[in-house]
């Protein structure tokens, strides 16, 4: 049986410092990929998949995010949460937990995928995990080396395919209540990492494997590659 729909929580509070001058005036989720912002692209995809309740966690230049979402003209219920500009990721989720139901799909505001969200929810419910994170393969351009204390190589693999967390997850709301206050208040992503490690210890952190499109960017060069990748994806899709 297919899982029922969940709320979507979009994390849009980061400063995107590595993008330099681009994000001095514009929050990262409002950067355009082609002729549309990555945030609008994400929200319209969620609507297409049948999700209509969004919680937008803002921080840096949150007023611009709020204004943009209103201007998108979406047929959706959008609510906003602001834990303050310095708040880390886990803190933002913790502060917003009263706005979503028993579980929610969490996404980063600067990441786009062609992930099948109903399948993700169904897997999460079936496996009875507190949180399910999405992992995807990324081909490393470097050789991976391990060596012992004497400086002798013990392992080498040329350009391996590694599995990365890509900023999508399903959270049971009740799981957030398990996080100690000190963990919630850790800066940036430190709290989230500590939270995931805690769940690993309890064997309650699941993984959903995604092999499809995934686009994110942290630098100007990565932004150019993201724009090229998205253009190529839709050109191929329309021609198939």
Short précis:
The protein is 35% helix and 28% strand. The chain has 240 residues and is of the alpha/beta class.
Please provide a written account of the structure:
- The protein is built from nine helices and 13 strands.
- It has 240 residues and is of the alpha/beta class.
- It is globular, with a radius of gyration of 19 Å.
- It starts with 6 loop residues before the first strand and ends with a helix.
Key phrases:
Spore Coat Polysaccharide Biosynthesis Protein SpsA, Chain A, globular, 9 helices, 7-stranded mixed sheet, 13 strands, 35% helix, 240 residues, two-stranded antiparallel ribbon, alpha/beta
List the topology elements.
Blueprint: E1 7-12, H1 22-25, E2 32-33, E3 36-37, H2 38-48, E4 53-58, H3 62-72, E5 77-82, H4 89-96, E6 103-108, E7 112-113, H5 117-127, E8 131-139, E9 144-147, E10 153-157, E11 161-172, H6 173-176, H7 181-184, H8 190-201, E12 205-209, E13 214-215, H9 220-239
